[in-house]
Design a protein that fits this description.
The protein is α+β, with helices and mostly antiparallel strands. The protein has helices spanning about 20-35, 55-70; strands at about 10-15, 40-45. The two termini are about 20 Å apart.
Length: about 70
């Protein structure tokens, strides 16, 4: 009730999109708020691994993730 209809909700997670809490939130939250609050996710791309295995690649991904989270 405290949010106006159409208020954008953004779930941000450090894990790849197919890991972490996103799938649970995507399934559960609409049951509580209906479709009145659009829901989107900012996460690393889907992956079989939770990490890139490269510190340099991780830093790039982390920077892109933070930028995307604050541009929503």
């Amino acid at each position: 009730a405290p949010f106006a209809d159409g208020t954008q909700l953004v779930w941000v997670q450090d894990e790849p999109e197919n890991m972490g809490g996103w799938r649970y939130i995507l399934d559960t939250l609409p049951r509580h708020v209906g479709n009145r609050l659009p829901l989107s996710c900012v996460a690393r791309p889907e992956s079989a691994s939770p990490a890139t295995g490269s510190q340099a690649a991780h830093k790039i991904e982390q920077s892109l993730l933070i930028d995307a989270a604050f541009k929503r």
